[in-house]
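User: Design a sequence. Structure:
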């Protein structure tokens, strides 16, 4: 490591140890930059090589024009990569396949090896098959290993075959919580050089690390693989939105309420493709756990990152979580030396500004289908009554009586802690009609009840977003304690689950004596993983599922997660709400969304009606337990041998050698097809002729709609494939668990049960019109794509605004490409999916401002020609191409935004580009 053209390599003395650092003050203009751009600037200084990173790139960043639209490209080299198993297994499959491709092209297969630390946490495979019993955890883990043995053997092989690749075994925690509690360095010390920890991940919620000052975000698995292999990530110097926080959260509100408020604000403001950075006096007063919660939800805002600078709260957290004193001292000394230590009184220069007074935050939920659709808890009942009309055919019953109780004015809108002496005031609903469809259900244990629209079928404490936050988790446990003492329990139709983000959570529950109360109301531990948040809810009880589907009931889910998209949580549940862990338990006790949870009794206890205010814990009580029950010893003990795993993990039989021995009978792990027949040099880019529309889609189509996820439904192409290969229905497992098998995944692409393909009328699911079969009004999308492929017909997808929002799922792009889609034409894209499309050789085109498929009169029945793409062969990127659709002609904007992306597209994808680059070297 040597000084660059700025001569910026200097020494930093910390205690008795000396480090080399690249000083930011060697570059004129660096002092005025926001924290996030200072991290990027150091990255460029350290990686300057005169080719990918030049002195001009460094000057461009130091001279950042806060008000300008992004136009300057830079190459960002992350210090490390983090993965979870759903998205990580395909990465390892691709790396194993690349080794064979390099060998076949005459290269050295061992060169395919991570050049930077790459860590995977297995957290996405546990499904809540069992709940509400003391042995739920053990039973779920047992089934997890039975289902995923092939995948886990493959990952164990990868851990031995690849250098710099480590795996955190199942049953440890959720990737993002493990990251901030243990894996994140904040400041790296590598080969005597100290530099900021930066990390990209194969999960969009990698941004949780932004809460401890680590710059990073979610990327597609293909980008992550390239980063592991030493490739920088091309990006435009972004606009940075400064978000000022003032004041303090009022009693009765939580970090969840705060983050839902911020999500609503930033979605309304518009931050797609931008950095968001928090500053102000309110930041200094914000616990690290709350910062991590906010950072976690960055994908729900649409921003690239949502970062907090390093300060005393950061180092306090590092000490709590067991980092060494040497590491903590380095973090503080480095941040202060480089001008990266938070000064709450200073307002950096930003592109745009927002401000939130924390004291104005109120208890909130979000739903029924998007995280940004925030609802004040005080309005949840009436909002549900309005929204449910979209999920039922008609109103079957009259409005309820319009008389409820509410809190005294002095306690509204926060939850009262004033005791039972408060005299309630009159409160009236607005009279919204409530649909009724009461269905009698008898469970196998003899329990009988009536199920109705709005009943809460799932109430899950899940997801890294909230389970990493001890304040909301302790709050939930205390609420459970208070509920048990009042004689309350969950309603019998509610599937409850507790899936913490790490073992530390259950440790502090045990130390505080709160576990028995959670168990008593059905919140037994079900696993350490993402569970319900990613659709691993598991089945509802059969009698409940049958009643819901036979009677088309609009039941609900309440979960402490970050995603509530349609069809994500459970195929039986139509309406999904995000809430804090205490509110999740409250709704499990109430059993319905059709309740004014703040003012109506939530249930009858041993001494009469119980109100939420009666059992809601005081913030002082929560803080006292957090302070007394969480210690450094918990973290050091939990993470002492984090990569070793239990006897199940260590006992897996694994193959050996640099090349993986593919099992042709495997339905979990198959050799990837991306390099089949690949030549050493790419073919010229070609225009698209005679394309047909595979799907015509509307606005806000998420990667959940595109990428296979959740259960594999009998009768679908994926199910048929598995059955043809001898897999019994009970062993289907989930799409996520089979991401290492492209044959399953392409059959599930665009197969979400809530997808609305406008080529068909009033049809939901993975269907389309197959124009190769005029006699067939409706076909599975996979079957139609196969028919088009047989005829040599390329495909396009038409879409509306925010196409590809949501998770960083690489299979949303991989599946699209493998189905034969050559181009997508949308009104706008979310950042990650647009990038992933290019990484798979799919051309992202955008309608010009003010235009759409509808305004241009496109029905999707046309045959498409796209010309002007061949201009990419000349080295540049055309701004526009010409699209002809039968008798219509229009211009579309080419959304290849950087020269680096153009190189990927010319090579047919990012992995092909990397592989050819390695061969040339």
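Assistant: Done.
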């Amino acid at each position: 490591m040597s000084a660059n053209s700025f001569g910026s390599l200097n020494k930093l003395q910390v205690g008795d140890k000396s480090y080399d650092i690249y000083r930011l003050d060697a570059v004129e203009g660096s002092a005025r930059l926001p924290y996030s751009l200072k991290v990027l600037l150091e990255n460029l200084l350290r990686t300057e090589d005169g080719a990918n990173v030049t002195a001009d790139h460094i000057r461009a960043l130091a001279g950042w024009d806060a008000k300008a639209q992004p136009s300057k490209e830079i190459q960002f080299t992350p210090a490390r990569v983090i993965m979870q198993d759903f998205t990580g297994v395909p990465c390892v499959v691709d790396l194993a396949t690349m080794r064979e491709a390099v060998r076949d092209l005459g290269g050295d297969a061992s060169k395919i090896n991570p050049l930077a630390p790459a860590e995977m946490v297995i957290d996405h495979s546990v499904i809540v098959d069992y709940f509400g019993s003391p042995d739920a955890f053990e039973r779920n883990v047992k089934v997890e290993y039975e289902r995923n043995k092939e995948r886990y053997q493959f990952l164990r092989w990868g851990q031995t075959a690849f250098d710099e690749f480590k795996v955190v075994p199942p049953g440890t925690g959720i990737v993002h919580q493990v990251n901030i509690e243990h894996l994140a360095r904040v400041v790296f010390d590598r080969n005597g050089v100290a530099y900021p920890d930066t990390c990209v991940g194969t999960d969009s919620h990698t941004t949780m690390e932004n809460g401890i000052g680590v710059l990073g975000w979610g990327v597609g698995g293909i980008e992550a693989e390239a980063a592991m292999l030493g490739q920088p990530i091309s990006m435009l110097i972004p606009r940075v939105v400064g978000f000022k926080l003032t004041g303090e959260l009022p009693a009765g509100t939580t970090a969840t309420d705060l983050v839902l408020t911020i999500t609503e604000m930033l979605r309304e403001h518009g931050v797609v493709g931008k950095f968001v950075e928090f500053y102000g006096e309110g930041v200094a007063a914000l616990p690290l756990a709350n910062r991590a919660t906010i950072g976690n939800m960055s994908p729900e805002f649409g921003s690239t990152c949502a970062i907090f600078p390093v300060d005393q709260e950061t180092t306090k957290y590092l000490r709590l979580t067991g980092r060494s004193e040497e590491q903590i001292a380095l973090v503080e000394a480095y941040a202060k030396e480089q001008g990266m230590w938070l000064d709450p009184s200073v307002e950096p220069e930003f592109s745009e500004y927002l401000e939130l007074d924390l004291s104005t935050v109120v208890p909130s939920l979000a739903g029924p289908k998007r995280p940004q659709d925030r609802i004040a808890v005080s309005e949840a009942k009436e909002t549900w009554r309005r929204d449910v009309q979209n999920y039922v055919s008609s109103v079957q019953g009259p409005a309820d009586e319009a008389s409820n109780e509410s809190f005294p004015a002095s306690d509204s809108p926060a939850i009262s802690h004033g005791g039972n002496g408060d005299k309630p005031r009159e409160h009236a609903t607005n009279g919204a009609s409530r649909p009724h469809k009461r269905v009698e259900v008898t469970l196998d244990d003899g329990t009988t009840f009536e199920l109705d629209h709005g009943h809460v079928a799932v109430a899950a404490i899940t997801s890294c977003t909230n389970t990493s936050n001890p304040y909301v988790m302790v709050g939930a446990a205390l609420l459970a304690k208070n509920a048990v003492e009042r004689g309350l329990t969950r309603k019998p139709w509610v599937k409850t689950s507790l899936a913490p983000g790490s073992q530390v959570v259950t440790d502090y529950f045990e130390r505080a004596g709160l576990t028995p109360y959670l168990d008593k109301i059905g919140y037994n531990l079900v696993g350490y993983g993402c569970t319900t948040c990613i659709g691993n809810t598991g089945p509802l009880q059969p009698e409940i599922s049958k009643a819901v589907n036979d009677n088309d009931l609009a039941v609900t889910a309440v979960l402490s997660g970050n995603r509530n998209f349609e069809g994500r949580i459970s195929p039986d549940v139509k309406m999904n709400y995000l809430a804090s862990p205490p509110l999740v338990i409250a709704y499990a006790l109430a059993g319905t969304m059709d309740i004014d949870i703040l003012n109506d009794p939530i249930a009858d206890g041993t001494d009469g009606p119980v109100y939420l205010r009666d059992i809601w814990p005081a913030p002082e009580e929560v803080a006292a337990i957090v302070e007394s029950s969480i210690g450094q010893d918990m973290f050091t003990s939990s993470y002492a041998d984090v990569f070793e795993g239990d006897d199940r993990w260590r006992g897996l039989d694994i193959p050996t050698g640099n090349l993986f021995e593919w099992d042709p009978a495997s339905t979990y792990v198959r050799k990837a097809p991306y390099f089949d027949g690949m030549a050493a040099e790419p073919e010229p880019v070609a225009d698209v002729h005679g394309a047909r529309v595979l799907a015509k889609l509307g606005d806000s189509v998420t990667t959940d709609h595109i990428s296979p996820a959740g259960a594999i439904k009998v009768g679908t192409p994926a199910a048929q494939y598995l059955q043809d290969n001898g897999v019994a229905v009970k062993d289907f497992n989930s799409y996520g668990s089979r991401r290492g098998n492209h044959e399953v995944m392409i059959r599930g692409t665009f197969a979400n049960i809530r997808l609305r393909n406008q080529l068909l009328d009033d049809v939901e699911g993975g269907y389309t019109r197959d124009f190769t079969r005029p006699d067939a009004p409706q076909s599975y999308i996979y079957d139609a794509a196969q028919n088009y492929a047989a005829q040599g017909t390329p495909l396009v997808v038409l879409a509306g605004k925010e196409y590809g929002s949501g998770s960083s799922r690489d299979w949303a792009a991989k599946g699209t490409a493998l189905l034969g889609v050559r181009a997508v034409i949308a009104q706008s894209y979310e950042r990650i999916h647009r990038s992933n499309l290019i990484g798979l050789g799919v051309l992202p085109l955008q309608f010009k401002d003010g235009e759409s498929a509808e305004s241009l009169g496109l029905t999707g029945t046309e045959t498409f020609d796209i010309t002007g793409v061949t201009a990419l062969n000349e080295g540049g990127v055309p701004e526009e191409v010409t699209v002809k659709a039968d008798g219509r002609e229009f211009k579309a904007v080419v959304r290849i935004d950087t020269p680096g992306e153009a190189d990927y597209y010319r090579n047919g994808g990012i992995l092909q580009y990397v592989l050819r680059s390695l061969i040339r070297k």
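The CA atoms of residues 697 and 757 lie 5 Å apart. The mean pLDDT is 91.
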